[in-house]
Specification:
Layout: H1 3-12, E1 15-21, H2 29-39, E2 45-50, H3 56-65, E3 70-73, H4 78-84, E4 87-88, H5 90-95, E5 100-103, E6 109-112, H6 115-126, E7 135-138, H7 142-154, E8 158-162, H8 166-175, E9 182-186, E10 200-203, E11 227-230, H9 239-246, E12 250-252, H10 255-270, H11 278-289
Parallel strand pairs: 1-2, 1-3, 4-6, 7-8, 7-10, 8-9, 10-11, 11-12
Antiparallel strand pairs: 3-5, 5-6
Helix pairs in contact: 2-10, 6-7, 6-10
The structure holds NADPH dihydro-nicotinamide-adenine-dinucleotide phosphate.
Length: 290
């Protein structure tokens, strides 16, 4: 089938799911979900839906009535949706944010968070030995909370957390404390002294994002063999990952987490866990370059 025929067919298909945000036009989610809908023969389309914060509640009622299975949620709605959800899964409750909504009959919705599972699944797909030693997570925003929750769930026992604003890291460590796990807050300016025994270093701050400040970190003290991962995926190779690669460390970029969190959302709506195949990743990489 050529692209035009496929697009014509899609434009007439019912909307079955979407992503809400403000702004939303740069979201990569439609690319992933529309491929999976087509791959699995599910009639319908997944669309970006721009909603201003002041319109959120009223628009939700309309979307639920329109028969959507659910929605992904991105900036700035993750916390507002958390407060509006009729029910939350354990991940969303712990992380304090919702990235996926599942509509139920009568317009109420369940809020779940697939970022933590997505983060872990991305690491699992690449390597098996990242859980053996301590992990250091940089950041204490919503994404860092998902990363730390994911690490705890995956069985990482020793987790260090550093954030520019130390108080946010302390709140995170308190909220996500779990028996048998040591969540230790360290000062942002002592990061380099806490890297000698790490298995895993995660950047979960927004440093490194295109057009923003890079994460400037001396990786010389990092244990040889440690895995370096960044959840920022635009650019795909952040300055942190570039530096790590040039010093011989294995790296994992943030695009895999984006793909895996989307797989779990799709599964929650349609009962099918789609593949994270190389062709999808290549399509996303092309999209990021454009
Ligand atoms: P938040 O705004 O909630 O948190 C931002 C974090 O970055 C905070 O820890 C903040 O520290 C830190 N930070 C920002 N600027 C600086 C700076 N100049 N110096 C030091 N620290 C800084 O954002 P999110 O947690 O929601 O998202 C973080 C990143 O993760 C984003 O780039 C987002 O695109 C990416 N992301 C990727 C996903 C994926 O699937 N790959 C999924 C979700 C998010 P402080 O508390 O001191 O302000």
């Amino acid at each position: 089938m050529n692209n035009h025929t496929e697009m014509d067919k899609r434009s007439r298909a019912p909307i079955v799911a979407g992503v809400i945000g403000y702004p939303i036009k740069h979201s990569r989610s439609p690319l992933m979900h529309n491929r999976w809908l087509a791959d699995h023969g599910i009639e319908g389309t997944y669309v970006p839906i721009e909603i201003a914060p002041e319109d959120l509640e009223t628009r939700l009622v309309v979307l639920a009535a329109d028969g959507l299975k659910g929605m992904n949620v991105t900036i700035p709605h993750k916390e507002a949706i958390f407060a509006l959800a009729a029910d939350l899964d354990e991940a969303a409750r712990n992380i304090g944010a919702v990235n996926t909504v599942i509509f139920r009959n009568s317009g109420v919705f369940l809020g779940i968070n697939t970022d933590a599972k997505g983060f872990v699944a991305n690491l699992e797909a690449a390597r098996t030995d990242w859980k053996t030693g301590p992990a250091l997570v940089l950041g204490a925003g919503g994404a860092a909370r998902a990363v730390v929750y994911g690490l705890v769930q995956a069985g990482v026992r020793d987790i260090r957390i550093a954030n520019r604003t130390r108080g946010r890291a302390e709140t995170l460590a308190r909220d996500l404390a779990a028996p048998g796990h040591r969540l230790q807050v360290i000062d942002w300016d002592t990061i380099s002294t806490q890297m000698g025994d790490l298995s895993l270093l995660v950047n979960a701050t927004s440093l490194g994002l295109e057009g923003g400040h890079p994460l400037e970190l001396d990786l010389a003290p990092l244990r040889p063999g440690a895995l370096v991962t960044d959840i920022v995926y635009a650019p795909l190779e952040t300055p942190l990952l570039q530096g790590a690669k040039s010093q011989g460390f294995e790296t994992i970029d943030g695009l895999g987490m984006l793909i895996h969190q989307a797989r779990f959302a799709f599964e929650a709506w349609f009962g099918i866990l789609p593949e994270a195949d190389a062709a999808l990743r290549a399509a996303l990489e092309d999209d990021l370059k454009s």
